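Backbone-to-sequence.
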């Protein structure tokens, strides 16, 4: 049977149902969002669905890429609109976690099903085979669990749980749809209690809570110890529990205790009594305003986060914790070195890290093949479901290759049978690299098999293992041959900040690379695309009065970007994560962009007391309609300058690639990819198409543009707006100074509003304003504060 999803029905407009509908809208799929009719309601029968949608529109972080997408969601109720579900391709049930309620709903749904409709449940733990009891064969064939993680837009994991009757073709289709259309990391799970991620993740959380209470660790101590130095998010355990909800954690734990009677660690899933007391008080975490942590306002209005004392149940200020093992771990370069250092320490931090690591890893090893047929599914579930850097068996490999650390962690406990098996029948680790490709130990064949994954992926790490593929590497960046005549320029400075080495290789890639390649991609595999210019060098130059050096560096960046814009071969940017300041400017000078949906793009220089000076002002003016041709046709030059000013002055950053298009940081013709694993492949494919168009005479580099700018009269208007904001306390005095410099650039300085100016004219204005602001002490203070604290200073 051939499956397709063009329209979806979502039944249940709570947090998860409404967020699933929002994410479907993000990818352009319309949905019908329905819920029950409120008891006794006669006028507003869709109130519950409407409220669910409204809450999702207000959600932070945002559920929608752009609020405009909400128009793809139609609301209704299950009584009046049941027959409309006959017209959808996929029905997602996201109602309360009660089997009787789901059964009653399925009976109604089955009465209107079309022959090919897909039915799924978003349950987080109810068994699939119990959900389909009493349903027809057709219903069972088209049913599976699609377990999204919260928040739906941001959490990558999607667990698929089929029953024995689920059509294998449907499972394959949903796996592909989830990966390529929804952008999820898909894991196929066995029909066991709470599947993979929650089974292992909640065990880890509960185990840690029991240790913390028994051994006297505080909430913030635990989160500090088991955070980034153990390859986990900063939220670690207690903060993550607050985010997901303590009641949710208890519900999953109780469900596992009831439904996994043969689990040797069953008792661990029972929430400690003191935490049950917290839940009874209604302290459920983020949703109730307090849980293990509580945010309050300080005496001067600042935000203060208190932690819960687990003995007294009083909220207290968080003390500063210092552990030698964590200090040593932070000095290490790689995650493997940080973990080994922390596990080998001799203080309380290392003790807790060892105990909880042993608990989690032994438990994971004993759950195979009960909950998954292979180790890869478990590792993917933990990385995608909890944002861990390493999966359980990747962490096992670190211990197996560090025997002394393994011995300390186990502290006399026995190796699980699966680990012994990989030592005796494998080659000592769960993963191995064979001929440049990662392989995993397959349990059924007792041999190493290549990771399958999606075929349409490009790994720069793998490509670079063949030395001849690295055309040039100067330490700051590398030019890599992706094959088919496409080169990739990869940055690898800290946070991919742009330095002299990157600028040098930009020149090389365009000038020399154009002789070897048909097109270029500028992309990388880092979490963030580029944090912009190297601010430390800017600060040092300003404080040393090295104005000639700074002027030359800024001019070099501007000319490198101009070189990209007018490159003889197509240049495609492939951003993911943050692309700020100079990173945004680089994207805006490429001929085409293939952006990850979760790209946060913006010109943020005003936040550090500067203005964009790598061509960002110029390019945003052009994209807002300041070219001489467009400005003459569309009402003159003031509107583009005003729009650009409103965006740059407040350091606007897009919340998604879609919003970046609305802000004009990206063009409407630029493309968006949802799955990070596909980004470089898609960017290369775009580059190939542009290269073919060039060879067919259908693509040429753009021609230099003239800009029509409004001049000094418009500058006075913008300056008056700044003065008004200063008088009302909305901006500081230095904000006003920066705003006036920005207004000077965007209105064209002293140019005539009827005489077009060149791109270089605007670049000169950018550079002049940037250097002038660099010389001011308050700008230098802002730069220093950001470098030291990572937070902007408002002085």
């Amino acid at each position: 049977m051939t499956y397709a999803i063009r329209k979806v029905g979502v039944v249940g407009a709570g947090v998860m149902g409404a967020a699933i509908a929002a994410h479907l809208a993000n990818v352009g799929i319309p949905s019908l969002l329905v819920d029950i009719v409120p008891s006794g309601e006669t006028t507003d029968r869709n109130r519950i669905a409407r409220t669910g949608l409204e809450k999702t529109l207000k959600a932070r972080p945002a559920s929608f890429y752009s609020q405009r997408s909400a128009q793809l969601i139609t609301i209704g109720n299950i009584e009046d609109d049941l027959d409309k579900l006959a017209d959808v391709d996929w029905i997602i049930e996201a109602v309360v976690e009660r089997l009787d309620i789901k059964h009653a709903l399925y009976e109604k749904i089955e009465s209107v099903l079309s022959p090919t409709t897909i039915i799924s449940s978003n349950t987080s733990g109810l068994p699939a085979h119990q959900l389909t009891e009493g349903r027809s064969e057709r219903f069972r064939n088209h049913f599976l669990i699609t377990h999204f993680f919260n928040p739906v837009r941001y959490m990558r994991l999607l667990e698929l749980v089929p029953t024995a009757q689920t059509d294998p073709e449907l499972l394959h289709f949903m796996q592909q749809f989830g990966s390529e259309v929804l952008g999820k990391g898909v894991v196929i799970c066995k029909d066991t209690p709470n599947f993979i991620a929650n089974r292992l993740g909640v065990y880890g959380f509960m185990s840690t809570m029991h240790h913390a209470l028994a051994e006297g660790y505080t909430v913030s101590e635990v989160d500090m110890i088991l955070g980034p130095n153990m390859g986990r998010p900063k939220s670690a355990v207690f903060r993550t529990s607050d985010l997901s909800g303590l009641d949710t954690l208890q519900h999953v734990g109780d469900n596992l205790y009831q439904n996994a009677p043969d689990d040797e660690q069953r008792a661990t899933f029972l929430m400690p009594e003191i935490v049950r007391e917290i839940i009874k008080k209604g302290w459920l975490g983020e949703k109730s305003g307090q849980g293990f942590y509580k945010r309050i306002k300080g005496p001067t209005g600042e935000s203060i986060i208190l932690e819960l004392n687990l003995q007294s149940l009083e909220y207290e200020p968080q003390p500063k914790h210092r552990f030698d093992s964590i200090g040593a771990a932070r000095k290490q370069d790689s995650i493997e070195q940080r973990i080994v250092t922390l596990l080998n320490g001799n203080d309380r931090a290392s003790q807790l890290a060892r105990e909880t690591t042993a608990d989690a890893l032994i438990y994971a090893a004993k759950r195979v093949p009960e909950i998954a047929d292979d180790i890869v599914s478990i590792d993917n579930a933990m990385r995608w479901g909890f944002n861990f850097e390493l999966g359980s068996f990747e962490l096992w490999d670190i211990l197996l290759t560090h025997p002394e650390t393994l011995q300390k962690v186990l502290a006399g406990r026995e190796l699980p049978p699966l680990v012994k098996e990989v030592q005796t029948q494998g080659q000592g680790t769960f993963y191995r690299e064979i001929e440049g490709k990662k392989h995993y130990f397959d349990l059924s064949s007792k041999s190493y098999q290549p990771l399958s994954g999606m075929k349409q992926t490009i790994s720069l790490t793998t490509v670079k293992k063949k030395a001849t593929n690295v055309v040039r590497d100067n330490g700051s960046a590398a030019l890599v041959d992706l094959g088919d005549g496409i080169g990739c320029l990869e940055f690898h400075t800290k946070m991919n900040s742009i330095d002299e080495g990157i600028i040098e290789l930009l020149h090389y890639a365009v000038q020399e690379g154009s002789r070897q390649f048909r097109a270029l991609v500028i992309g990388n595999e880092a979490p963030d695309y580029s944090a912009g210019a190297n601010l430390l060098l800017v600060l040092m130059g300003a404080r040393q009065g090295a104005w000639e050096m700074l002027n030359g560096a800024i001019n070099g960046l501007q000319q490198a970007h101009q070189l990209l814009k007018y490159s003889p071969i197509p240049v495609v940017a492939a951003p993911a994560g943050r692309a700020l300041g100079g990173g945004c400017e680089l994207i805006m000078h490429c001929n085409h962009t293939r952006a990850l949906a979760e790209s946060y793009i913006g010109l943020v220089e005003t936040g550090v007391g500067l203005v964009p000076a790598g061509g960002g002002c110029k390019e945003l003016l052009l994209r807002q309609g300041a070219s001489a041709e467009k400005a003459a046709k569309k009402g003159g030059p003031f509107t583009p300058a005003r729009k650009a000013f409103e965006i740059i002055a407040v350091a606007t950053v897009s919340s998604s690639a879609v919003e970046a298009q609305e802000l004009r940081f990206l063009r409407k013709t630029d493309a968006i990819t949802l799955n990070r694993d596909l980004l470089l492949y898609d960017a290369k494919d775009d580059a190939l198409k542009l290269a073919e168009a060039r060879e067919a005479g259908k693509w040429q580099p753009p021609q230099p543009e003239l800009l029509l700018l409004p001049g000094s009269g418009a500058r006075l208007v913008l300056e008056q707006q700044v003065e008004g904001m200063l008088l009302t306390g909305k901006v500081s005095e230095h904000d006003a100074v920066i705003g006036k410099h920005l207004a000077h650039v965007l209105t064209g300085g002293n140019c005539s509003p009827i005489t077009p100016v060149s791109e270089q004219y605007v670049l000169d204005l950018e550079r002049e304003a940037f250097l002038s602001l660099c010389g001011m002490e308050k700008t230098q203070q802002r730069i220093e504060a950001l470098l030291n604290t990572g937070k902007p200073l408002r002085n």
